[in-house]
Amino acid sequence: MAKINPNFKKLPQNYLFSEIKKKKQEYLKKHPKAEIYDLSIGDTTQPIVPSVIEGLKRGVEKLAKRKTYTGYGQTEGNIKLRKAISKFYQKRGVKISPSEIFISDGAKTDCANISSLFSPKSKIAICDPVYPVYRDANLFWGKKIIYLPATKENSFLPKVPKQKVDLIFLCSPNNPTGAVMTKSHLRDFIKYAIENKAIIIFDAAYSEFIQDKNLPKSIYQIEGAKKCAIEIQSFSKSAGFTGVRLGWTIVPNELETEDVFEKGKINSLWQKRQSIMFNGASNISQEGGLAVLSSKGQRETKKQIKYYLENAKIIKDGLRSLKLEVFGGENSPYLWVKCPKNLTSWQFFKELLEKANVICVPGEGFGKYGKNYVRFSAFALREKIKKAIRNIRENL
Ligand SMILES: *Cc1c(COP(=O)(O)O)cnc(C)c1O
User: What is the pLDDT of residue 355?
Assistant: First the structure.
């Protein structure tokens, strides 16, 4: 008799973004002429830069000729792309061999599936507030989860767990708080991981928003990380690939668990897992990825990231001029804003929608420590952002 995975019952019942959409539609029904400014989105809005469009076109053109046509590629991805990623790390002073790189169809897939590499009994630490994928995927796998509070008191950079855990998910620059881990914070986690034979899953999807030279863009910039950390990366936010789909995951050869310390062994197990569950990323996307990593691609995408960062600054300055407490928004596209007057996040969401026609994300959707915060996103058009801020200033 078939039975449904019982872990479905453990998942949160309300879907944050559908709830937001519902509230927006209810408001529009009552006020059909209102112009709504949506600053809730965690999705890129700027078109892909010209050099990368050329790369994607090259990928398509290759499929049109028998000589250059390709079908299935290597599960771990195009070797040219893996070499380009290896060079990308080299420029950051990090040595990653192409054999340690696995091309993916985006970071979310691997964030959600990486736990399958480890014992079903693994205890997982995630931050609160958190990118919901780590929480929901691990609940889905039936894992035990403990939460590391990210609060104003710790500058939204959680301390290492007090108890022994097996896996730790970290995201820096952080979604939703916009906080960026310093080298010293990462050092604490690496020390913990090595002492406890734990593994860190480091989600660096927003690394390219880091402008401050002292902040680490990769966990491997910290000594010891290759022994205890897997890094997950994405072209989504840095190159507008949210719809194109491309990312990568690094499983270092030096990685060790309590039971496996043979060099390259865990890497080969992930290879095995991928060969069962995955058939490689799109060859067209990978051609686009190569163009992102070319020097022209890097120049053009960097400019686009600056555009989003300027948006973030406009939001930050605007909200601060209203005496709101605003965190993040530097080296990150997200701003984490304390609700005024002790409002809960859904109450402040409602006030922003009704008084200023602005939509943000209520923080409690990311965890209980988000209950008095809302998230603003800088992934919107400049003009809309300016109007949204003006509306908030005039009407809140
Ligand atoms: C957007 C995002 C990703 C990227 O997901 P893709 O599947 O690559 O589009 C990964 N992690 C976090 C925290 C994100 O916000």
Answer: 97
Measured from the CB, is residue 285 less than 6 Å from ligand 1? no
Protein residue with least CA distance to atom 15, ligand 1 = 175
Report the alpha-carbon distance of residue 188 to residue 183 in Å, rounded: 9
| Residue 175 in contact with ligand 1 by CB distance below 6 A | yes
- The hierarchical CATH code for the domain 6-48+297-395 is 3.90.1150.10
Average pLDDT per consecutive 10 residues, the chain (396 residues; last block may be shorter): 95 86 95 95 95 98 98 97 98 97 98 96 97 96 96 97 97 98 98 98 98 98 98 98 98 97 97 97 98 98 98 98 97 98 97 97 96 98 96 94
Distance set, CA 278 to CA 70, 74, 107, 203, 281 (Å): 17, 10, 14, 20, 8
**Mutation pick for ligand 1 pocket among 111, 308, 336 (CB with most ligand atoms within 8 Å):** 111
pLDDT of residue 384: 95
Cβ(106) – ligand 1 distance below 6 Å: yes
The domain 50-293: what is its CATH number? 3.40.640.10
Name the closest-CA residue to atom 12, ligand 1.
205
Q: Helix, strand, or coil here: 65? A: coil
**Chain centre to alpha carbon of residue 254:** 25
Beta strands in the chain (DSSP E): 37-38, 101-104, 123-128, 144-149, 167-171, 199-203, 229-234, 247-250, 326-328, 334-338, 358-359, 361-362, 373-377
Residues of the chain with CATH 3.90.1150.10: 6-48+297-395
CA distance 337 to 320: 10
- What is the pLDDT at residue 378? 98
The CB density around residue 263, as the number of other CB atoms within 10 Å, is: 11
Q: Give ranges for CATH 3.40.640.10 in the chain.
A: 50-293
* Spacing, Cα 101 to ligand 1 middle (Å): 18
Q: Model pTM?
A: 0.97
According to DSSP H, which parts of 180-338 are helical? 183-196, 225-228, 236-239, 265-277, 283-293, 295-320
At residue 15, the pLDDT reads 80
Q: What is the Å distance from ligand 1's center to 202 Cα? A: 12
